Structures are given as C-alpha cells and as structure tokens.
Amino acid sequence: MSSMEGFPDSCPVPLSEYPEVVMAHGGGGRLMHRLIDELMLPAFGAPESALRHDGALIAHAGGTLAFTTDSHVVTPLFFPGGDIGSLSVYGTVNDLAVCGAIPEWLSAGFIIEEGLPMETLRAVVRSMARAADTAGVRIVTGDTKVVERGKADGLFINTAGIGLIPEGVCSNPSRIAPGDAVLVSGDIGRHGIAVLAAREGMGLAGTVESDLAPIVGTVRGLLDAGLDIHCMRDLTRGGLAAGLHETASASGLTVRISEDRVPVREDVLGACELLGFDPIHVANEGRFVLYVPGGLAHEALAILRRHPGGGSASILGHVEPGSTATVIMRTLIGADRVVDLPGGEQLPRIC
Amino acid sequence: MRFASEYRDAAAARAYAEAIATICRGRWTIMEICGGQTHSIMRYGIDRLLPDAIELVHGPGCPVCVTSAELIDRAIGIASLPDAVLCTFGDMMRVPGSRTDLMSARAAGGDVRMVYSPLDAVREAAANPGREVVFFAVGFETTAPVTAAAVLRAEALGLRNFSLLTAHVLVPPAMEAILRNPGRRIRGFLAPGHVCAVTGFREYESMAADHGVPIVVTGFEPLDILEGIHMCVRQLEEGRAVVENQYVRAVAGDGNPDAIALVRRVFRPVDRAWRGIGPIAGSGLDLKPEYGAFDASLRFDDAVSAEPEPTPCIAGRILTGEAKPGECPAFGTSCTPERPMGAPMVSSEGACSAYFRYGHRHGRSR
Fold first, then answer.
1. Between these two residues, A226 and B181, which has the higher pLDDT value?
2. Which residues of A touch B48 (CB under 8 A)?
3. Is the ipTM reported for this complex over the cut 0.85?
4. Could you tell me the CA-to-CA distances from A207 to A263, B99, B189 in Å, in that order?
C-alpha cells in the first residue's frame, strides 16, 4: 500500500540563511544574539561586556554612569496593564536599575504614522509623564518624526536613559560565583500573555494584566539593605529562560533551578497550556533575576516580597561550578533538563 | 494547575518508573507517534526515568514536519500574489519549502497571517471581500473537523473568496507503512490520544492483531505517558498485542461521531506525499469534488517547486524511528532551530527540535 521501502535518507530542505531580516531577528532569542554577535559587535568594536549587559557603564570623574537605550514597538498600543508610553519609560528605567543604577534622565524619540489620532498620542504622552513620575526620572530631551501612512504601525517610541551608580555597587554577570543563589522578583509570563490576548482578541477567561512596572523601588530596597548583589538582569522578550541563559553564559557557570520554584499564576499557566508555550519563555516587563551569595538568599527574598509585585518572589536555585555554561532545570516530575535559549519568535503551535 | 498538575506529580512519576522497571525483563523499543508526546518526554525528562532496556523512538506525528516542500512552495507562491491573504498556524511559518519559508515570504511583502483556528481565516475572508483568503490546512485527524467546519461556514456565508490549500494527513496509514518497513525495530506503539479522541481506536485493533504489536492510546501529560509505557511493556512481557486505552478521560472507542461526520461530509481520502518519507497511499485528506469551489489548488496557478539541494539531513529515517537525531551528521552543527535543514528541526513538535531545545545536544535521549 505504500512505497516505504528504502525511505529517502535526505530531507529535501536547503539551509535557510535569511537574506532579509525576519521577525525572529528581534525576538530576543538565538537569531537576535547572532545578529548582535556577527554584525553589531564587530562593526562597532564596543566592549563586549557593555553590549552583553543591559546598559553600558561609563566611568568619569564624578563616579560611574549607566547608559542604555531601548526601542518600543507593541501592537496594540494599549493593552491590559499598560501602553506603549509607560512601556517605553519602564523598559529603559528597568535596564538602568539592573545595572545597579539610580535612573535619572531619559530621552524620548517618537516615530509617528500619519493619521494617528491626536487623542491616542495625547494619552500615550500623558502615560509617559505619569510613568516617569512614578519611576522618579525626568524626560529631558526628545525628537519627533512623522512618516507616511503605512510606513509605521501607528507609533514607535525610542527612549535612552542615564543613571548614576552608587559607590561600591557592581551588578555584572562576571561577579556571579559558585554558591550564589538565584532569585526571581515575582511571578512570570504576564506581559507576553496580556499582549497576545489583547492583540489576538482571544477570549481567555479572565483578564491577564501585564506585569509592566518600574523595578527601581525594589532594587533600591536591595541596595539600601547593603546586600552584596552580584548580578541582576531584567526579564523581557525571551522570558526567564533567556535571562538565566544570558547570565549563565556570561559567567561561564552552571545555574541549577527547580521548576516547582518558578512562580506562574494559574491564568497565565492556563493560557500557556492552550497556546503550547512554556512560561519560562514568555515575555515580562517588571521582573528581574537576582544573584546574591547563598547566605543572603533569604534576606534578599524578604526584601523582594515586601515590594509591589513581589509577593510570589522565589529562590529558584543556585549556581554551581561548571565546565560548560548552562542552565539546568529539575522538572516537576524530578528529572533534569537543559533550559535553552528560544530560537526567536514564540509561535503558537497547531494542536 | 487543576486538571494538569495532578498528572505532573514527582512521587507518582517515580512510582510509575519503578513499576515499569519491576515488570521489564526484555529489551523493548517503543514508538510514541505524536510530536506532542515527544515534547512531553523531552520537556519533563521522562526518558531519563526509564530503565535502560526501554528505548523510546519518535514517530512521524508532527503534521508540520511531514508537509511536503511542494505544498509549502505553493503556499509561499499564493502568499506572494498581490490580492491574496495566506492564513496559517504559527508553527508553519518557519518550515522551509524548497528555497524559502513563509516568514521570509512575509518579510518580502507577502500577506501571511497567523491564525489560531480555521474559523479565523473564514472571518478574514468575510472582512476582506476584495481579497482571496487561503487557509493552509495542515494537521492530523484532530484539526480536520475544524477545517471541515470552516468550509461549511464559508459555504453558509456564501463566501466566494475563501479557499483551502489542503495538507491534512492521517495517522493509521503512516503507522501501517512503518509496520511494513522491513527490519523495523519497533515492538510497541503509544498511539496519539488527541487523534483517537476524534477517530476512536477501532481502526487500530486490526493493526495490532495483524502485526502482533501492542498499541496503547496515550495522553500527553508525564503520568499519561509513563502509564502508557507501563501498559505497553506489560503487554510485551505477557506476549499480548491488543489496543488498550490509557487516555480514558478523553478517548472513547468510537471517537467523536459528530466530528467524524463533519470530516466525511467535506473530505475524501487521497494519496499524499510525506516529507522525508515519500508517498503513502490513502494517507491524506482532500476536498470532495462537490466542495471544489473551495479548493485553492484549482483556483491558483501552480507555483513552481524549485529543485531541492542535496543535504546530509536524515529526516526520513528520524520520522520513521529508524534513527535518532544524534545519528544525523548535521544535528546541532550545520542544522539548528534557527538554521534548520529538515522539518523535524523546525517545528516545535519535531523530534530534532525537541532534542535540541531540551539539551540532548549529543542527540541521544539518554
């Protein structure tokens, strides 16, 4: 009934080298890292440590500055728990905060599509002002460009930010050491699910709100307590998996976590089950991972839990000396597996 | 999470693993058919809990992986037409045709839209009367009823701008083909629970009897799979070869009669080429002649399928359980999820992708 004898050994598929930029090049996964490694780093000759962290550290006579930038494109512009305005402020503020900096000044660059309702722009700008106020930063310079209808998806915003790093603070993957505890500052996966649900109009029961929030207060709490913070990394597109993977890679050590310690809300978990997503790969906008010496784990946890959004903060695991940099997760059924960097865009599966 | 966490319990998993080790005397190679099961095995590390005497090999149960390059080329061709909208499931986006993939077609200006249901594509057609909306219908018996419902919906709405590029495939003919392969090592099967929820498992009973293989209809949670393996090993040790149903909470012997009726009303079985495997008689579904108005392949000129380049990829042997991903010279080196050579590396349900994502970098499950 079939011609199965002698299956062709080779699958008739050529390499796909992507002669054009595809969405996954911006997905926060492996494709994006390749783009940075193979195109940006060699061209700019910037110190790798700067591009590998969330911001560059610039030493000058008065101390150390942290400097970072982030462009924001989100559909829809308004989603449960936030909008592109608050996202553009908190995204940059959070990148500075995980460098151990107190964020001070922001720039704002707008690329606006012709035809965007003025009322929409007004609402976004108001939201940015409120967000800046909440995060304790000032928007001190900016730029506005308008492009023809169809040349931009409504509105894109770029922000850059400068923060001041207090004396003695050094948050960097190079400081991660065997014996460190690794913590997450709250439940994960809310932002990705909230935006997807709003974009696709999925009738998910209940409404998942984005976790979008400034983490400045939480980081200040940790710094004020005098904790020796080895490294912080805010979790964005690639989710917890990418945050852990990037820090483990940069440190050259093995990070071991337990799946049953990963805090995920029931509604987020349910949406992930439906879509075939792993919550550790889903985007966040108000969460970070934290490496501290093992002995300080519980003190750090108590501080995380005292701050807004940190009620379900958790000690995920610890750092081990390792011959290869990797993240290993003890699964719910008690077996170990490697946590990998996602390839690019998370694509909802078929069944 | 309710209705899921109770199937992911560490103590219960250990108990099942011990029970399997206790009854296992021989060495058994078992194939799980469905890509969803393969992913559960890798994601939770189920293979690492099993005794060495049990080897799991991974079946062709990923509809995206087995869709032929020719059909993908046609989808890309349609997506590139000025007035066409091509709707597809997300995991089809990065599967390469003979030259390129749908994501690249979208980057090049083609209108490719990800949908969650074929009914979303019908909505697109209703909302865009001036455009030709084509749904790239991929999937096993699980998704075929919804595709059939979409056709009937489009008919009821009187839509003339909706059509299907049909790539539906059927599980039993593929299993039959694997069983007839001379030199097969596979001694038992975990049959796909969700497919059987639609079709039931009567068709599998003659297969088990004719070929002397136990077939256990199995779910997708870790404890489902461990229990399915336990039932399969018990049959093998006792020398039995029948169909058993592990997934009783979802599957009835006769399946879902309404869903079956929908499929029979709209589709008819046809021969279909499986990527990496070749043509299998009666293994696909296509629109019945009376629904020919919804057939995209009749509506659009055939896209030219480019000549494939030779590659070291052994996807065909992997999809039939003859080889593990690590036996492929390209695995993890020239073939990775972002630069895939073969479909099992592209689709999130493919065996190579599962091995890569869950850290079996050496390509063996243990």
1. A226
2. 335-336
3. no
4. 18, 41, 41
